[in-house]
Amino acid sequence: MLPISLEQSLIVLPWHDPVVEAVGYDARSPYVELFWLGILGPTATWVLRRLVNGLDAYPDGYELDLGETANAMGLSLTAGTHSPFGRAMNRCVMFGTMHQVPAGVAVRRQLPPVPLRHLSRLPPHLQVAHIEWVERSPHSDAAESDHRLDRALALAETMIRTGDEQHQVERQLLSLGVAPRIAVEAARRCATTS
User: Could you tell me the CA-to-CA distances from 57 to 47, 61, 98 in Å, in that order?
Assistant: First the structure.
């Protein structure tokens, strides 16, 4: 848990993660609003967006006055982690959209596709919408399909180079939100080249 106090400020840094950045969605995107909102909660989603907006202005990081930020968002900030602002920050940590670093927090600008374990908690209509979102790709647009396969192949090759076993690649691609048919093809091609 993040120790939050009334007088505290935090340094906000970007969280660089090439794997998520290759397949992720901007923290302020419609994808995040539709599918991450029900998992993070509205307050945590807005806090995350606020921090990412700050990274747009200061890409290398910035100092965040917690009390001022909480006030600007209409949230209370009390000592400890039980204030609405403190709980929102901790939800961001709990769900992997930020993590503690010695100086403060590192924040994802791009969120990964919602993991399957969280998708199952969404209402049925959002689960169906997510499947449609992930699978949506115009079959007539071969260039876009090739681009998605190229990205999946790059991810699969990176996984293999970093020591992942071949049998894990397809499952990991699926957990990152790669469409099933593309994940299967990338894993198959990776198996034939290694």
Answer: 16, 9, 18
Cβ neighbours for 55, distance < 8 A, ≥ 6 positions apart? 12, 14, 61, 62, 107, 109
Tokens read off for 177: 């939100």
**Contact in structure between 183 and 174 (CB atoms under 8 Å):** yes
pLDDT in tens, 140-190: 355 556 777 888 888 888 888 888 877 788 778 877 777 767 777 787 787
Kind plus residue range of the DSSP H or E element containing 147: helix 142-161
Helices 180-193 and 142-161 pack at an angle, to 10 degrees, of 50
25-26/110-111 β-pairing: antiparallel
Cα distance between residue 181 and residue 48, in whole Å:
32
Which residue's structure tokens are 């700050």?
A: 54
CA-to-CA distance for 51 and 64, rounded, in angstroms? Answer: 8
CA-wise closest residue to 145 among 99, 88, 186: 186
Q: Going along 88-184, which residue ranges are E strands? A: 98-101, 104-107, 110-111
The angle formed by the CA atoms of residues 78, 89 and 76, to the nearest 5 degrees, is: 30
